[in-house]
Specification:
Length: 199
């Protein structure tokens, strides 16, 4: 049960309300969804902005594109003199794209030893990176906000306990000290990791 005192945002989570406390009542009814005919353009843009800012999508995509271009060039240079299928670099790019997605549109493929070696390595690495980009982006997108909400709940609890520090017992003060120490140490390690990654 929550209570509000003197229009301040101090919350009690245990015990009974005292005389004079105002009770905050929360409706738990089901929210009705509205049918949208027009797409939510700001929501879509916010989604893509979150993907760009909070996930490893662009660095992984850049690695994938560079490997695609380099392996296509390798297959093109190895196969151009002997294989009519690879008559242009653009057609070799298309072959490498289909090989990456395992679509099967890449037969017969390279016929020279170097072309088969480069094409085989590209097929395996390209497929792994292609699906890895998708999985890593979705994982990061759905996990980062949950971590933020959890951290915000811890910070709110610390702020509440600091406001009520005079009424805390020794055990509660020790728990508060341990929690603050762990939050601060985690933040310090995150800052050190990010500074090491930048340098």
């Amino acid at each position: 049960m929550f209570s509000l005192k003197d229009n301040e945002k101090s919350y009690e989570t245990e015990g009974r309300p005292r005389t004079g406390d105002r009770i905050l009542r929360v409706k738990t009814g089901r929210h009705r969804r509205r049918l949208r005919i027009v797409p939510n353009i700001p929501g879509i843009l916010r989604f893509f902005l979150d993907i760009i800012r909070d996930t490893p999508f662009f660095p992984l995509l850049l690695v994938l594109v560079v490997l695609w271009l380099v392996s296509s060039l390798g297959v093109y240079l190895a196969e151009r003199p002997v294989n009519e299928q690879f008559y242009s670099y653009g057609h070799t790019l298309w072959w490498a794209f289909t090989a990456m997605q395992t679509q099967g549109a890449n037969s017969p493929g390279p016929i020279t030893a170097w072309g088969m070696l480069i094409g085989g390595i590209w097929s395996i690495i390209g497929t792994v990176i292609f699906f890895g980009v998708i999985i890593a982006t979705m994982y990061a997108y759905y996990m980062i906000p949950r971590n933020r909400r959890h951290s915000q709940a811890i910070i709110d609890a610390i702020e509440y306990n600091l406001d009520e520090i005079d009424q805390l017992s020794v055990d509660e003060l020790n728990t508060l000290k341990d929690t603050v120490t762990s939050v601060v140490n985690r933040r310090i390690s995150n800052i050190e990791k990010s500074s090491q990654n930048k340098s």
